[in-house]
Request: fold
Amino acid sequence: MFAARLSSQTDWDGWRGTTRRLMTLGIAPGDVAWAVGGERHGGLFDVHDLPPPPPGPEPEFRVPRAFIPLAETVILHRDSQRFALLHALLLRLQEEPRLLEVASDPDVARLAAMAKSVRRDQHKMKAFVRFREIADDGGERFVSWFEPEHHIVEATAPFFQRRFAAMRFTILTPDRCADWDGRTMRFGPGVAKDQAPDEDRLEEAWRVYYAAIFNPARLKVAAMRSEMPVKYWRNLPEAPLIPVLIASSQARTDTMIDKAPTDARPNRQRAEPAAPSLLPMAGTIEALKAEAAGCRACPLWAPATQTVFGEGPAGARVVFVGEQPGDKEDLAGRPFVGPAGQLFDRALAELGVDRLKVYVTNAVKHFKFEPRGKLRLHKTPAAGEVRACRPWLEQELALIRPDLVVAMGATAVTSLFGKSMPIGKTRGAVIDLDAGTKALVTVHPSYLLRVEDAYKAQEYARFLDDLRLALPFLADARKAA
Ligand code: URA
Ligand code: SF4
Reply:
């Protein structure tokens, strides 16, 4: 057995360098014991240091482009075998360069599932982190507690940094803690789960923790300690003072909700618990859009041109939700500008509605297609893709807080209600989406393009009838007749 050591759980550079050396030396994945930080090599007697690399030029290894993002994500997984699994996959790729395209291959499938689990966890962190305000000598600070499933704190912290750039905040987790002082992001060791002080001592304890961990003079020590195995953390002198904020304690978050500059309200309850809403803190639609431009939460981003985000005024009373951008939208970067969009525009115009006064978006923000010669043929997004993209829609709705959401087509319905519902039976009436928001279900405009000629006029008229139900919500958006 050979020992391979990484400096932290997410030491990507370390893994790359070590794996390269293992491959140069011809050491098989099964002969490597990986350890992180000061961790011992799991009680193995027969563990040797890696021999030096052989003399001569380093051999070239084949690293397909798609391997990098996969490995960068998988390395955040909590499974301690991930280092060896990635090593094994990279070895196989030397002989089978197109292996990553074989989704049914057990190794590929396993790593893809791991990456998916990591991405889901990142989504969850973005959605579930709730802050509580704490006053300290620097002014106000927001603190939250979150328990990630994987090692995602460092990778996900930039999301919060961009989103809450103007706030000072700290996210405490059992793995790592992230602290943003308005200028610099710092990471410190995690907080043991059982260290929760009671409500009264929360602030005081947090201050002690903060002083101990984020005092720059101690940062090095803190960083070193952070690499210690979990079981040693409780021996740290400051451990008993380390606070945690329990995510379920809604009362703690209320202050922050009240503080939100955009008249935000707490998350909406939706049918499916797996799809949490994100609190629209300092958020604006523009900021959200910028965020979504870099979204990689499902595979659809890769072949598409760009994220097509919703469009319209943040104060819109009515939000229209379609399925996903089409070919034209993908190229233009704007929703509903292609053939379906033109039909939609025509319907709005006939009802006297100014499109610029409503908000138009999609359940899925990237174009899913199948190349066919020069054409890119629309493909219906899979349930997992709709689910992955739902936080974006939820955040749009949470920011806009429309009075009415119009779901156009089955995908929009699934995303909004968290389950599929027959459009034929649901259309034609304003229903409740959740407290304070109504919903209206109708067909997707592209259905009107596809339907047989004999039914076109009739179906279009029905679509108009449905949309007419939105008019009472659209008083401001109607043109003076
Ligand atoms: N279809 C949609 O659902 N959305 C668009 O943006 C365009 C076509
Ligand atoms: Fe992200 Fe949605 Fe695009 Fe998937 S489709 S990458 S979830 S924006």
In short: The first strand starts at residue 2 and ends at 6. The chain has four domains: 2-123, 129-195, 203-258+268-276, 298-474. Confidence is low (pLDDT under 50) at residues 213-282.
